[in-house]
Amino acid sequence: MNEKNNEKNNENKNDNKNDNKNSDLKEWELEYSQFGVDSIYQYIQDMAVKYNLSQTLEALPYVCRMHEGQYRKGECKLPYSIHPLTVAAHALALHIIDDVVIATSLCHDICEDCKDENGNRISANDLPIGDEAKAAVALLTKKKRKDFVKKEYYDNIQNNQVAMIVKVLDRCHNISKMATGFSKERINGYIAETEQYVFPLIDIIEKNYPEYKEKMFVIRYHMLAVMESLKRYV
After folding, report:
1. Phi, psi for 122 (deg, rounded to 5)
2. pLDDT tier at 146 (50, 70, 90 boundaries)?
3. 32-231 maps to which CATH number?
4. What letter does residue 160 receive in the DSSP assignment?
């Protein structure tokens, strides 16, 4: 009888722990609801109207439509559009008020991950953005082929200011979310790739475009803080 009572008590404790965990998660979601799709979308839209960012206003509804039904990796099942929206919002929050950069941030994954109504990959030329942004998206799109060379990919990005800036912003958001959707092996690989290829992009931006030096400092500091913390647990 005592054994059964102990088992029942343990079950109740576990249930309470799960209830508390679920409650904590709900509170977390409520507390940080400003980082949800709707809130970030509205922020970008308001900033685009304020600063007359015409390409951004075109790309904003388009990117959400194209990524509809796609989700970020991990158990939370976040809509994929939260990623390009956050990348664009991060740029605006750093006061990068550049229509080409913001439009590229929004569209940077479409050619890689989305298809048209006929099942064909979207071409950069089909995006509702200007030629400069299209060129940057094309450089940021990883080719799905066996002979893909990572160094070649990053070398090409180094030749385009917009592509470099968006790649750094993109990596910053992915680094921030590694713990929720990456395996330990992928976290280690992602950190190594960031140190080998992405930090040199920041160096180039700081050297060639000094107006971005303070912004790059903030981004590098953020990524380093997350990476150094995760290194101790993986």
Report:
1. -75, 135
2. low
3. 1.10.3210.10
4. -
| Stated pTM of the model | 0.85
Predicted confidence band of residue 15 (pLDDT cuts 50, 70, 90)? very low
d(CA 206, CA 162): 13
C-beta atoms surrounding 157 within 10 Å: 23
Task: Judge contact between 90 and 172, C-beta under 8 A.
Answer: yes
The structure tokens 């991990």 sit at 74
Give how far Cα 157 sits from Cα of 15, 64, 142, 154, 218, Å: 51, 25, 11, 5, 21
- The amino acid sitting at 222 is H
Give the residue among 129, 219, 117, 122 at the shortest CA–CA distance from 165: 219
Which amino acid is it at 99?
A: D
Distance of CA 26 to the CA centre of its chain: 23
Distance, CA of 150 to CA of 121 (rounded, Å): 21
Region for 73 from its dihedrals, namely left if φ exceeds 0, alpha if ψ lies in -120 to 50, beta otherwise: beta
Beta bridge partners of 71: 79
- Contact between 102 and 88 under an 8 Å Cβ cutoff? The reply is yes
How many angstroms separate the CA atoms of 48 and 63, rounded?
15
- Using alpha carbons, select from 217, 218, 225 the residue that is nearest to residue 175: 225
pLDDT at 67: 92
Sign (positive/negative) of CA torsion 220, 226, 231, 234? Answer: negative
Do 89 and 106 touch, CB atoms closer than 8 A? no
Helices (H) and strands (E) in the chain, counts: 13, 0
Q: How many residues does the chain have?
A: 234
